[in-house]
Amino acid sequence: xxxxxxxxxxxxxxxxxxxxxxxxxxxxxxxxxxxxxxxxxxxxxxxxxxxxxxxxxxxxxxxxxxxxxxxxxxxxxxxxxxxxxxxxxxxxxxxxxxxxxxxxxxxxxxxxxxxxxxxxxxxxxxxxxxxxxxxxxxxxxxxxxxxxxxxxxxxxxxxxxxxxxxxxxxxxxxxxxxxxxxxxxxxxxxxxxxxxxxxxxxxxxxxxxxxxxxxxxxxxxxxxxxxxxxxxxxxxxxxxxxxxxxxxxxxxxxxxxxxxxxxxxxxxxxxxxxxxxxxxxxxxxxxxxxxxxxxxxxxxxxxxxxxxxxxxxxxxxxxxxxxxxxxxxxxxxxxxxxxxxxxxxxxxxxxxxxxxxxxxxxxxxxxxxxxxxxxxxxxxxxxxxxxxxxxxxxxxxxxxxxxxxxxxxxxxxxxxxxxxxxxxxxxxxxxxxxxxxxxxxxxxxxxxxxxxxxxxxxxxxxxxx
Length: 465
Hints:
Layout: E1 4-10, H1 12-15, E2 31-38, E3 41-47, E4 54-57, E5 62-63, E6 68-69, H2 71-74, E7 75-77, E8 82-87, E9 90-95, E10 103-108, E11 122-124, E12 130-133, E13 140-143, E14 148-149, E15 156-162, E16 167-169, E17 172-174, E18 176-179, E19 185-188, E20 194-195, E21 200-203, H3 209-230, E22 240-245, E23 252-260, E24 263-269, H4 278-293, E25 302-303, H5 309-327, H6 334-348, H7 356-359, H8 362-382, H9 388-399, E26 408-409, H10 411-422, H11 425-436, H12 442-451
Parallel strand pairs: 1-23, 2-15, 21-22, 22-24, 25-26
Antiparallel strand pairs: 2-3, 3-10, 4-9, 4-13, 5-6, 7-10, 8-9, 11-12, 12-19, 13-14, 15-18, 16-17, 20-21, 23-24
Helix pairs in contact: 3-4, 4-5, 5-8, 6-8, 8-9, 8-10, 9-10, 10-11, 11-12
């Protein structure tokens, strides 16, 4: 039977453009949005602080399967004289004439499906639990004359209420939730969280039994190992995991999700995940380990610019492989790492790694970041370290804000740690050239670099040959 494989593992919180809000203009009152679930269904009432020709939703990415704006599929404007329109790639609340009323009510059906390069608007669980993403209610003024969104606008304050009972927000139950955090989920319903020393998880009760067992076993191990090897993650409270099951959709094997500050969402779907097999097991483990790594590489420390994304994505890749090897001694990442090296070779000919995001060669950040991570791992091992965890632990410790650092890891920080481990200034210079200037022969140059730390990479001649 044909099987469609869908992998969505994105660190949107790091790549989604920042929205200029009233945080830059503290005297401007906020937009207030009241999101309510009651016997009549779901509604969002917007209270606008000023007149505007329209109000735009900065997060208007298309629905992946439908290839259209998702709000037009699930939102209905109740307020007379106002309509929801899609202008180019932006959803906008527009008045039929003049300015938008100060109060606008929308009825909606939570949209629990994938978006392109953004978080699912809703995560639906089979026991009736539902999580809503806060950021999709944030708005900015719309300029009708130029047909574009204003560069600055008021902050959006969101208030959530469920007539059926309390809400779960950042691991705690509340009767109502009011927040300006536009990068998290609010949970409606009566879920039964699983709590360990390192995390709180809500796992859909209809998740296939083998997957549920794996999640309950592997998630705590993942966060415990990361905390033990990398230090405690920054931020208050335990991280939350929301894992939903979208059912045994025919001809589909899909494991996706994303990471937010203090929260990991997982969306599992497809008949390809109903029965346990080795490929599905390792896929699920790798996905969780990669995304879990971002609580350290991505949140405890961040990258400086898009040109440095390889530090986080490649770093999370290699940490995931090493973590699974620690949990399962029979696991062998060799074939996957060999493919990663070949991908890096192919994508690097004449292309500096620092330009990958701008070129939209996102796979280069993952692949070449992993390759450079293996070079750093070799350097750490020459200095008495066990593996890549030791390199990352030192990097995080030196730069985390709660220990006096600036909270970011730049390429210079990364290279400085490489020199501290290897004592090899020339190696750092070669690697910096690869990142910023590129090479016409990446296989030759990367193989030479890893040989300097006494190792060989897939596709390279063994050291001493």
